[in-house]
Amino acid sequence: MPKILLVDDDIELTELLVDLLNMEGFDVEVAHNGEEALLKLDLSYDLVLLDVMMPVLNGIEALKQIRQKYTTPVLMLTARGDDIDRVLGLELGADDYLPKPFNDRELVARIKAILRRTNFKATPDIDINSADDRKQLEFGGVTLHPGRQQAIFEGRDLDLTGTEFALLQILIRNPGQILSRELLSMEILGKRLTPFDRAIDMHMSNLRKKLPLRNDDLPWFKTLRGRGYLLVTEK
To answer: Taking every annotated instance into account, which residue ranges of this chain make up the domain Response regulatory (predicted)?
Structure first.
């Protein structure tokens, strides 16, 4: 049973969400501010559902501290229209965000999409078959271990978040192939791409910052405006 840490100071909302998520088969623990969340968080949790606006320690500050120790997936709950918090959350390593008020079904779908990354599956039009999903991959000096969601370069863990790992994995499995932002959003985030949604772009930016120089001195990725991204295989 997946274990979730729900962090929100709204008592009534947390009670409703606990009931909802319990019915969906999740084991839910609750913290009412960022400080309490940091005291409870450990490696047993599969996902953190983190509100931004909270007393004592808000969601943004809590996320900063979470990412210093954990790569546990984080789904941020943000105020509708508050783009600054959304962008900042993604820059700091949040896996996705959901604006309040949200539909219960959408929340559950987002959570399940994030958790599915540990059992990565591709769409039929991508050249990946599920039998190979958990095999070790190597490219450009980086070794991916899908079973434990870990990327290694010269013995060093690159400390990728679950979203960053899934993004790198799908690109490495499709070298030289253009993958659209729409496809990546559905495969990695489990949601349709909307006109002003920059989540995939932010995750690509974060991934670029964490990756070392390739052994062949080529850039890792190429951005094709209006088309998507590809993993560079040749000059």
So the answer is: 3-115
pLDDT tens digit string along 113-167?
Answer: 888 875 543 333 344 344 455 678 999 889 999 888 899 998 899 999 889 999 9
Q: How far apart are CA 12 and CA 107, in angstroms?
A: 17
**C-alpha distance from residue 219 to each of 44, 164, 234 (Å):** 36, 17, 9
pLDDT tens-digit readout, 180-196: 999 999 988 888 888 77
State how far the Cα of 195 lies from the Cα of 32, in Å rounded to an integer. Answer: 33
Domain residues for the domain of 140 are 120-231
CA–CA distance, 147 with 120 (Å, rounded to integer)? 10
- Say if residue 81 is exposed, middle or buried (CB neighbours under 10 Å; 0-12, 13-18, 19+): exposed
The last residue of a domain, from among 101, 117, 133: 117
| pTM beyond 0.85 | no
What is the C-alpha radius of gyration for the chain, rounded to an integer number of angstroms? 18
Please name which of 144, 230, 151, 143 lies closest in space to residue 183, comparing C-alpha atoms.
Answer: 230
Do 101 and 163 share a structural domain? no
* Residue ending a domain, choose from 117, 133, 148: 117
97, 38: one domain = yes
* C-alpha closest to that of 36 among 55, 19, 21, 53: 55
